[in-house]
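Subject: for your reference before the review

Hello V.,

The reviewers asked for a structural picture of the protein, and I figured it would be easier to keep everything in one thread rather than splitting it across files. Below is the amino acid sequence we used in the manuscript, unchanged from the supplementary table.
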Amino acid sequence: MREFFPNIGKIPYEGKQSTNPLAFKYYNPDEMIDGKPMREHLKFALSWWHTMGGDGTDMFGCGTADKTWGESDPAARAKAKADAAFEIMDKLSIDYFCFHDRDLSPEYGTLAETNAKLDEIVDYIAEKMAADPTKKLLWGTAKCFDHPRYMHGAGTSPSADVFAYTAAQIKKAIDATIKLGGNGYVFWGGREGYETLLNTDMGLELDNMARLLRMAVDYARSQGYTGDFYIEPKPKEPTKHQYDFDTATVLGFLKKYGLDQDFKMNIEANHATLAQHTFQHELRVARENGVFGSIDANQGDPLLGWDTDQFPTNIYDTTLCMYEVIKAGGFTNGGLNFDAKTRRGSYTPEDIFYSFIAGMDTFALGFKAARALIADGRLDQFVADRYASWTTGIGKEILDGKADMAKLEQYALEKGEVTDSLCSGRQELLESLLNNILFNLD
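And here is what came back from the structure prediction:
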């Protein structure tokens, strides 16, 4: 079989003193931590769309990287992509991958032909997975946003015909996910929103989105699928207002339609930035509401108003991310999918490896820092002390439901001014604590 990256071998772990650009400095996939290897704690995944198809095209220019994989025929290219992807995963010690249906195989003349070609490549990938059982599907999804039929939305389209086509496409993507043994299926409303309310029936669109989700869940369960369903929040781009704006907005939607027991969140760092939240905020909201599921690992540029999908290199972000993941009990069916792409000017085959190494090392270091932060205990103790008034006295009575408005009024009248019950938040001290732990790791 053709080797696509003959000048790059298996990426070794050489430790933080290494200057080898093709070596891990912090990610040691087989290092045992709390009874399992680091690779199982982090569960890194390759995104088929950016890594195998993203050629650097943006709104201002054509592609700069060759992602044809040496094939001009679409069907042959689909297989070459799979071969190259498995080579990348093997050399980078990545155990998982994620896909949109149209990333695996493009559209052809009819839906029937498109489905048949998709079946062929899914079967081909299944054969490759059987030959290498270490490679697994993290999650699949359907690309219901780029074709002109989805210009006004997919599940929220004003056209019932488009809604039906969307359902058919999602059904097939679910079938592919099940065939490849995926334990996750993601819904991202790429155009599920509006540009103006002047032409929008918001109530019908939201009702229809809920109908589509319910149909998809019912179908997948009827086929024996036992994995997770995820919704990936995103506030804007491409539409002015998207219905899956952030985790809190999605939670409200799910609860309204009785879907909250069926879905978890796939949190993307760059989407948090676009919602003017921190990555940690979105993870915390998901964790506190019991819907933390999986992560799209990347970072955005706060100076730009669109999804830049950069490989993550901010160690503070990855530390606080992994702090939330550990507090949530770690990953179950989810993982860390690199929904990230090399910069348009980083167009060589080597840049793919440099980018993954940077992202994987950054998360490995963040994981170690988060474990050290939790083991240190001072942060958790400070938070516990700050809220200690809720464990005794009037605070405990409030939490136990033993205090009504009249009783609280009487308490306040007798207590008088309460500012002496406050203490400093000591934000600067805690940020210094984080720095101290981060830069004193073994």
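For the response letter, the relevant points are probably these. The first strand starts at residue 32 and ends at 33. The first helix runs from residue 38 to 42.

Happy to draft the paragraph if you're swamped.

O.
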